[in-house]
Design brief:
mainly beta; two-stranded antiparallel sheet; globular
Length: 160
Amino acid sequence: MRFIFLISMFCNLNVFCVPELNEARLKTLVKESDMIALAEVTDVQPPPGIWSGQFPVTQGVSYKVLEVFKGSLQNDTLSHNFYVIKNDPLSDKQKPQLSTSLFAKKKKQLLFLKSKPDVKESTDGSATVRQSTTTSPFEIGHVLLADRNTLKELKRILAR
């Protein structure tokens, strides 16, 4: 099983590709995430045609949320822009685009999300999140291809 971290256009996370996902790593992801959702890729924007380099180049992916395991989400759809980096595990080996084996319509992924850090105080003292072009107050921190065993382990960890 391959475990893949993604970079977000909205947060500068490093990209890691870990060959195996063990229980300890999954527990850490669960603990660090504000929301965990099972989502299906519904759309992948056309490839940008060039790799990120001097300028950041992204490719958008849209998701339909199938199930929320932790936290809550107002919408059942999410959109996210991923950097297209040459020789990155998320990118195609030859063409400047996201990997079609990872980002294809109908692919199911576990999304580990964090609250967006772009928070401001409202006049009544409660925290409100500034909305970006997507209306989600979350950003994708980690993506894991969903398989039966991983889902089973995730549910077991959350049930504790």
